Amino acid sequence: LNLMARDMPGGLMDNMDAYLQSLFALAHDASFAVRREVCVGLVQLLTVQPDRLQPFLYQVIEYMLQCNEVEDEGVALESCEFWMGFCEAQLDPKLLHPYLGRLIPMLMRNMVYEEHDEDVQDAEAAEAPATREDRDSELRPMHHKQKEHGATPEEGEEDEGDDDDEVESRWNLRKCSAAGLDRLSNVFGDDLLPVLMPIVEQRLQDPNWRARESAILALGAVAEGCHTGLLPYLGNMVSLLLPRMADPRPMVRIITCWALSRYAFWLLAGAQEAATVAAASASQAQQQGDAHAAAAAASQGDPAATPIGPVIEGLIRCMLDHNRFVQEAAVSGLANVIETAGQEDAMRVLEPYLKPIVDVIATAIQRYGRRNLRLAYDTLGTLSEAAGSRLGDPALVAVFMPPLCARLSAHSPHDRDLIPLLECLTMVFASLGRQLDAYAPGLFSAAMSLLAAQQHVRTAAASGAAPAAEYDRDLVVSALDLISGLAEGLGPSIDPLVASSPLPQVILASCTDESPDLRQSGFALVGDLARCCISHLTPLAPHLLTAALAALMPQQLVQANMKACNNACWALGEMCLKLSPPLVAECAESAANRMAYILALPVRLPRSLVENAAIALGRLSMVAPAIVAPHLPHFFVPWCQALRSVRDDVEKEHGFLGLCALLRLNPHPAMAANGFAALAAAASSWRCIGCEGLHNEIAQILLGLKQALTSSGAWEQQAALVDPVVLQKCATMFQL
Questions:
Q1: Where are the alpha helices (DSSP H) in 111-142?
Q2: Fewer beta carbons below 10 Å: N end or C end of the chain?
């Protein structure tokens, strides 16, 4: 019944009262296994049918508090899930508020490590010098992050790497309690602090390291939810925690790295504010002619004078800790700080630390075992995205590129440890581009050699021979994505590398492969090369266009293929833009039909696919308007709707340029029912049109349509269908 409750079938809904009464009747069963299942059932009901449980909620809360105290860890763990379920159910917080005085201390008790916890034993054992390399069984599964053009974070997959909110991998009562405290802090905010902080303050002074560690865990858990109440004390809190980064116990060092990194946003914001205030004070002092005061004021804006500086320095030191579990926490914490700085446009704060950060990452790449090496690669990739051209300083490049290249040359083309390394190099090259010119030939050659070695294995296996290694599709995908990163970063400079290689044939094979992952990477590379060196794709253009059209057949639009379809759609648009018009004309009608089908499909498709279809259709229409224009009535309205959601950039310009080209030849769809309203809504979606010619074109078309509709007596009727806000914006932007 508990398993069925997740999907809440009709039969269970019809018998909900009986199900609830059965759970209540078994609540105090002598068997811990039965009580554990009672807790599971109540938690599931709370998340899927909270209204049915609400009349009994006070009794259920009391029951869960009691179950949290029982000796059976299974019952305690399942009952502890209830507090997260309460938060997810979005019930009135007032229902739980009276119990916080009992709940928070109980969660804090649960958050103390047990005497013989496996995580503690592993970390303590790692205090001894490492005598072996990490085993495969100790490595988390690798998930290569493939390139998907135009995908937004909310529609893409969540990050499948290490959860930076979770240092260890084993789920238990301690971790469940910490997660519950985290969720509760987001619901109750600073209301938790009067109950929580006295416990934390007491434990921070406790001689027992387990108590100190649980206090630091609690501070990290409430970082987001209680930040308003903690913000005035953030500097003191950092000062209190920094010495714990050198604690004799590894678990204390680990949790301190994690907890401090949880405050990255507020630490960076404080440093930015301090820099702004210091700059203003220094400027005022200079205007008054007081050079000494100006220098003193400017120094107050130095990140080293704010809490973020010592935190970064502490994380850097812990990255070189002798304990691999401390290394893991430190490098993950530093990655979180860097990522936050990039997202919040706060890299200026980290600039004074760029050299030491690069130094420690380069050292980590040389020293770390296999498990943490992946994290070091990921941190460097994150730094390249956040810092951009700042990382391209030749002095910095000379620090981090040689160890990366040394690692690359040390692997065989069949070694899966290449995957995170290739992913790192892809991110670095895509961000720095021409600043890494000197390394491009060697990396391109390495990627091509890997592709050749994998193809040799695949060919041997297909012929019945016994290959020396197994074919690894993930390695092929990683190599293709690296070349894609090179193309994105180098632009036309990649031309001589492609010219002397069999890359176009490799790409075509990938675009027609049965694997969606290979097709996804293949089409991504087609699009990137079409932008910078289309001449090398032209001999195979008919085959590549056919492959893209095949990938966009209606039967291909299923979940497993969606990312490959998305990249095929984008690549098709890029090829239409760069290939000769006669080549494009040969596939124009078929391509228009594929795009129209995607735009008009009533089922929900990924936003990136719909937007890429709208852009590709615009590019196709720019090149072959006479072929596409007769078909405009079939997709005009959904095309306009899709263009509305595309952000202002050159791709949106291409979409509208193609739309205008078709309307010049066939204006009737814009004069039909809802046609003008759809066009006006699309035109008003622009915040600012960078291309003056496009702006004038849209204005002329709108005015021409208004005149034609006025002449036919249909203007008032069509204008009434337009949202007044849209009509006003069109009047302002296009003098309609």
A1: 118-125
A2: N
